[in-house]
Amino acid sequence: MPELSVEAVERRRNPVEYPRPVWPAVSNPRRSLYTMGDDAEGARQIRWEFDHLVLADAVLFWFSFETTQPIVRYELGRWAASDKPLAVGADPACERRFDVVQQLALARPGLTVHAELESTCAATAEFRLDAWLEGSLEAE
Fold it and tell me: A Pfam family this protein belongs to (predicted)?
């Protein structure tokens, strides 16, 4: 565990006196050039996504209406079974929205499945700030 500075400890004790902006790092697996059918490239992409999900303090899942996203549903199941903070949204026109809502109601009761990308993103800011105030995020 990193050594905490006096200021970092005081910020956690008195968050109103020491406001700190929380700037998340965002990892997006989408790439402009991706060759479907290239096994080496596919393995590299899967490894990149796996590693970044493991490293993340929290994960946002967005299910669009354009595709069924079977691998993303698998990844959601994996992280829903963990204690990692999640923000989840599914477009109202998403073909499998019902399934996402029902599965998360069982795995993570109380977790909101948002209908808009904007509210899904806003949820990540809330739990990231909550985690920092609780002291579960490392000091900088």
Answer: Nuc_deoxyri_tr2
pTM as predicted = 0.71
Please give the chain's pLDDT, 140 residues, in tens.
344 455 554 545 554 554 555 556 677 777 777 777 889 988 988 898 899 899 888 899 999 999 888 889 999 999 999 999 999 999 999 999 999 999 999 999 999 999 999 999 888 877 655 555 565 555 44
- Asked whether residue 43 is domain-assigned, the answer is no
In a domain, 35, yes or no: no
How many structural domains does the chain have?
Answer: 1
Q: Answer whether residue 21 is part of any domain.
A: no
88 DSSP β-pair partners? 61, 113
Domain housing 70: 57-140
Q: Helices 97-107 and 70-80 meet at what angle, rounded to 10?
A: 10
Q: How far apart, in whole angstroms, are the C-alpha atoms of residue 102 and residue 98?
A: 6
